[in-house]
Amino acid sequence: MKLSEEEIERFREELAEILDYVKQLENADTKGLEPTYQVTGLKNVTRADKPLDYQAKPDDLLKRAPDTLDKQFKVKRVIT
Amino acid sequence: MADWEPISVIADKVQKGELKAVDLVKRSFDMIGRTKDFDAIISVPEARAIERAKEIDAQIAKGQKVDRLAGVPFVAKDNFLTFSGKTTAASHMLENFEAPYQATAINRLEVEGAICVAKSNLDAWAHGSSTENSDFFVTKNPFDKTRVPGGSSGGSAAAVALKIAPFALGTDTGGSIRLPAAFCGIVGYKPTYGLVSRSGVVAMASSTDVIGPLAASVAEASIILDVMAGRDELDSTTIERDTEGYDVQTSKFKLQNAKIGVIDEYLTEDLEPGVEKQVDAVIQKLKQAGTKIEPISLPSLPLALAVYYIICPAEVSSNLARYDGQRYGLFAKDAKNLEESYMLSRELGFGAEAKRRIMIGSHVLSSGYFEAYYQKAQTVRTKIINEFTSAFKKFDFLIGPTSPTTAFKIGAKTKDPLKMYLSDIMTVAANISGNPAINLPAGFSNNLPVGLQIIAPMHADRQLLAFAKSVEELLA
């Protein structure tokens, strides 16, 4: 991500303040506790490995891209 | 303009031919025109709405039965993918994006006969508490144009308060349904995490994002939840619905049976006196109604905001990585090579708050900081969940204010991102833990609405709605 000089100055202060605020967690006693990454308790939700008859078709997705070639996304030159 | 009749009455009249769906949709368009000054709406999918309304009227003329939302107009926050017109997430990145498919929530509402009449404003990507972070314009509070409607679902909350439609959809990742509902004096419902499919909704923080209704009353919100709730094979995090459903229109919850905990930590914060007064009044009324009501301390709740501002940006930085300009969304034409096209597309497509969250998120997930920030936050999350679990062994519901203040002035917090984040101090905990929670209007302070928050155990959505309906009647 590109940032302007002004953005860099502004974000430097703001992000420092935000990170300083979240640092208060350092003092929380979490001995013996495990992290919680998700709250549903669901595990290994699977479905049959078959294509769904879905609302959007490949062409619907491709036509939203800035450039395509032979049903593929075309990007700018990688090495210049 | 008069209030909308209850959703069930509207649908019934449409089914009987006493009301035309086309006229209901036109009434919404008329209200959008009349309330333009409030800037609640980003776009109006007019042609499709009229077409759908005509279809419904034609089906009914032929004697066919349309489902329980026949002809009922609604507003969707503009981070719900919808056919016809644009889905922008109020961002420059998606300013010209036309969705190739619709959100499951929208499809389920349409199957029952509801009609999307407008896409509402939000903080871009749903990042914010005031709708001032919209990349397009600021929505004004329906009660005072110099104040914010709350956020991030500020356009949806304002649309319901301005009577543009009987209900609206929002998303709530850290309070984004409940806070604007509180500031705009309406009901806002945040379901248990996973109850409503997130398929087709622009992802913010995937482990706390939920979808819910904003409406004039609890009964109205409950019908909409009932239509949307349940497993969806397009979202593997969705959970089973309650076998009895969520529609509480006819339920009669006896308040004297309720055991209610008043959250200490939310009453000792810097509460605005008018908010404190209204919340106290609710507590007194609940006592008089015979509920068992006592204070309860959840000592880790004040840490929830710090937990949130690690988890949320971490997930945001991951979810926003897809907006690289290559497949859809804004694309920087002038870039010389691939790398520059990523950099420039993001520079132009993301506003200041998205950039902040991408940077914080990338930082807290980076090697060397991951344990200290991200993992620590997820462990404090466990501590918060444990405190809720033990509180709910003693109490059926927990209550407190939704926000420490009423709607604040436009511009009051935009210069200070941390101050803006603190607006969510009382709502984020339920997102961290996944618990269902509701905002109920609880009177006014200086002519601005005050919001009461009720939090319930995981999966107790039906009970929460039934209880909230009885509290609503008590406060009426």
Q: Care to describe what's here?
A:
The complex is a heterodimer of chains A (80) and B (476). Chain A has helices at residues 5-22, 58-62, and strands at residues 68-69, 72-73. Chain A is mostly helical. Chain A has a domain at 1-29. In chain A, strand 1 and strand 2 form a beta hairpin. The radius of gyration of chain A is 23 Å and the shape is flat. Chain B has helices at 7-16, 21-34, 46-61, 104-111, 154-161, 178-184, 218-228, 264-267, 273-288, 304-319, 338-349, 352-365, 371-394, 417-421, 428-433, 461-475; strands at residues 41-43, 73-77, 115-120, 167-172, 187-190, 210-215, 259-263, 292-296, 397-401, 437-445, 448-455. In chain B, helix 2 (21-34) packs antiparallel against helix 3 (46-61), helix 5 packs parallel to helix 6 (178-184) and helix 10 (304-319) packs across helix 13 (371-394). Chain B has an 11-stranded mixed sheet with strand order 1-3-2-4-6-5-10-11-9-7-8, sandwiched between helices. With 476 residues, chain B is α/β, with parallel strands linked by helices. The longest helix of chain B is centred in the last third of the chain and has 24 residues, at 371-394. The chains are: A mainly alpha (80), B alpha/beta (476). At the A-B interface, helix 1 of A face helix 10, helix 11, helix 12, helix 13 and helix 14 of B.
